[in-house]
């Protein structure tokens, strides 16, 4: 345990009935750090956030905020800002009125409220819409305002539950900028997200939860490297009726087949079915292509596409949760095709 940690979670356990929602979770977050919390549904993410924000009494274990023990139920609104997943704004009030209300609730001094609200509106670039009722703002504007309701009290610890749920790329980027700026100013951010690409670009470190346990904790690129080393993910798409010589060659290299009813642009009915073959390997691409195509003669025409991609957090997550990487890679190419 470092004395300087903004947040320390020490052997936290939460049991609901006979179910362990969190099982001996320990981690620390430093001031100015953005920690992404990842995990499949039911992994224990919301339970962890509820414990950190003092809304839930853990079965055992302790939480320290800036070195001080957290007592569940005590009001921490000055030091902990929580943005829940679902919008909690008063729709019949304006953005300015909403922020002033949340500033008052979180203990901002009366004479500071006006300046804090203006500053928060400026930060989320909604100054020109400050006096528009919330129900007349777009979804993206409401999402930014929802986050500003937490930022207005300038808490040292920001706890965010899916802050970009349902927004377009532009709003997502501006919310990321907002979070990064607060972290650069010294705030500590704990953010739950289901978007693994988002976690990869936004978080300094990520914590992967699975079945209530902390399965991995590190910088995103370090986790990818620890899991995959120099291995990359190769996908070969072939016609469904794959010639035996090609099938043998793919298996010999180590590819696993995953069939589906993909569509290609050929008019030949027999070719309308596509098969996908996936491989995790540290072979360089040119070597793999050379090996794949060598002496294949006519069978090489059955190869529709060869692609390679770097593994990312989503592939690490699949390793951690026990799913096979090749099925993830294949389902990604389905989405792209
Ligand atoms: N109040 C409760 N009583 C009983 N069981 C609960 C309660 N809250 C959560 N659980 C269970 O604890 C486990 C963890 O739930 P939690 O909501 O923390 O997961 P999560 O990772 O946030 O999931 P999601 O991504 O679906 O929001 C789940 O199995 C859930 O059913």
Automatic annotation (TrEMBL):
SMART domains reported in the protein's UniProt record: AAA
Molecular function in Gene Ontology: ATP binding
UniProt domain ABC transporter: residue ranges: 7-236
Keyword tags: ATP-binding, Nucleotide-binding
Keyword Nucleotide-binding: yes
PROSITE patterns listed in its UniProt record: ABC_TRANSPORTER_2
SUPFAM superfamilies: P-loop containing nucleoside triphosphate hydrolases (SSF52540)
Protein name, UniProt field: ABC transporter ATP-binding protein
